[in-house]
Each structure stands twice: as C-alpha cells, then as structure tokens.
Amino acid sequence: MKKILIVGSTGQIGSELSKKLRGIYGRDNVVCGYIAPPYPDGFFEDGPTVEIDATNRQQIADAVKKHKIDAIYNMVAILSATAEKNPMLGWNVGMGALLNCLEVARELGCAVFTPSSIGAFGPGTPPNPTPQDTIQRPTTMYGVTKVAGELLSDYYFSRWGVDTRSVRFPGLISNLTQPGGGTTDYAVEIYYKAVAGEKFVCPIKQGTYMDLMYMPDALDAAVHLMEADPAKLKHRNSFNIAAMSLEPDMLYQAIKRQIPTFEMTYEVEPVKQAIAESWPDRLDDTCARDEWGWSPKFDLEAMTTDMIEVLRKKKGER
Prior knowledge:
By secondary structure, the chain is an alpha/beta fold. Helices cover 43% and strands 14% of the residues. It has helices at residues 14-25, 57-67, 80-85, 87-108, 141-160, 186-196, 215-227, 248-256, 270-278, 286-292, 300-317; strands at residues 4-7, 30-34, 49-51, 71-74, 111-113, 116-117, 164-165, 167-169, 171-173, 200-202, 210-214, 239-240, 244-246, 264-266. The strands form 4 sheets. It has a 6-stranded parallel beta sheet with strand order 3-2-1-4-5-7, with helices on both faces. A 3-stranded parallel beta sheet has the order 6-8-12. Strand 1, helix 1 (14-25) and strand 2 form a beta-alpha-beta unit. Helix 4 (87-108) packs parallel to helix 5 (141-160) and helix 6 (186-196) crosses helix 11. The longest helix has 22 residues, at 87-108. It is globular.
C-alpha cells in the first residue's frame, strides 16, 4: 500500500486531490501537509495531517520519516497573476518547495509528482497545437518557475534516479474550491456568477483561446501518471495534457443554454490578458495518450451540466 504526503494540500488542487487519493489508497495512507488557514471543511477529521512549511526542508523530511512516505505530491505554488504582483515570492515559494521535495526524495527514496502548467510556454511557442517538445520561453515568473521545475525534476531523475513525474495542467475548473489568483480563474468565476443569478464581467477578451480542464479529469491525470509503468515513460517532466480549447464566449453560450437569463460583459484586465495571449491555444497531448493512456472524460457540455448542478446544490444548502 502506498503512503502519500501531499504538500500544499489546502490549495485549489490539493484540497480535492486529498479526497481523491484517500478514496483510492485509504484515509490513513494519505497525509495532508498544511501551513495556514483557510482549511477545507472536515480537514482535520478526514485523515492524518501535519503542519509543513514547504520552504522548510526539515519539516518535509520529518513528515516523510514519521509516516513512512514513499510518494510526495508537491502542490505548492503561487499562481500566475498573483506571482506577477510579487515575483520574488513566486520564485521562492515555487522553486523552494520543489527543491526541498526533490532533496528529501533523493535522501529518503520517494517518488515526486509536481504539476507544471500551460504557463511554461510563451509567445514564441507554436500555439495550435503546441507540441510536447517545443520552445519554452515564458514571460511570467510563474512560467519561469514551471520551466525551471521541469528541468530540475528531469535532472534529479537522470542524475540520482529520483522517480519524478509531472503533467502540464491547463486552466482548471472546480466546483469545490474558489479561484486562487490564476489567469484562467475567469472560467471558474463565470459559473459561480451564473448560478448566483448575477452578471459576469469577463477579464479576458472574447476570442482568446486557452486550454481548460474540469478538475475530475485533472485529478485522474495525476493519479494515472503516478501509477503508470515507468518503463513506458519517455517524457517524465512534463507531459502535455488537454481536454477543451475554449474562449470566453463558448463558456458563456454553454451556460446560457442552461440558464437563459445569464448575462456577461467584458472588462479586460491588461495583465491577465497579456498572460493569456502568451499561452497556447491548444496542447498536443499525444505523448500522454500513447505513454500512459491519458484520456479526459469531460467536454464543455458535460462539464457545464455538472458544474451548474453541483453549485445549485451548494447554494441551496446555504
């Protein structure tokens, strides 16, 4: 049975990943690292937890030793738009956490999963489709940390044999956690506004395509890659994965088909728009499909139906 440590377990992905992993491996085999509130509902009751500052290597090592961990999911990062407001924080947190996890893994024999992002690409990258192996010259600190993280993870694998694995997540849409400062957060906020009966003001210009993915597919990708036969992996850090290439009006129209009174206007935020335009329109995920059987389950219509249903239930509970 695997013993897993999630560093950054209270974040947008980590809070949902913890539930997914506990459902597979058992609640006592998944340890959730945390540093500060807010905590998800039932966080301390749902399974083992440990206070970890990911920039403190010793705290990670102590948790790995105490709980006999053999796989670390490093979910720590400062998201794109937030990192542009404080680039040094973005670098120190993103790279500090990763380096600490890799060093602990090297010393204690753990595997490491660290998400990369479409933010690892830049305006010089072929945008449609973006190949698995291509130019990576991002224009944001977030993107710089993701490229550096991919290279560092590959180095730890080739130099010391650390079992490092990663996917390049598109923008992720969740019905559980609120947006946390990412460029694609508009694609989450639009659903919350629609269900609340409010008009949505979109910060991204109509016609701006980006890859998006429903959170259940993202969680499946993280699990399936870590379970994949290592002999079949040619691209460890990091795999393109894709589900939907969308622009804001496509989301709006999908929601409007189910909530006809929904309204949306545009008020473009220059920083977010510049970041969005530097990212790919569509990723080529052929390598992930061929090497470990990646295949998303949700398209735009299925995601929209599920998002609205879940958010209506949550609204009714309040």
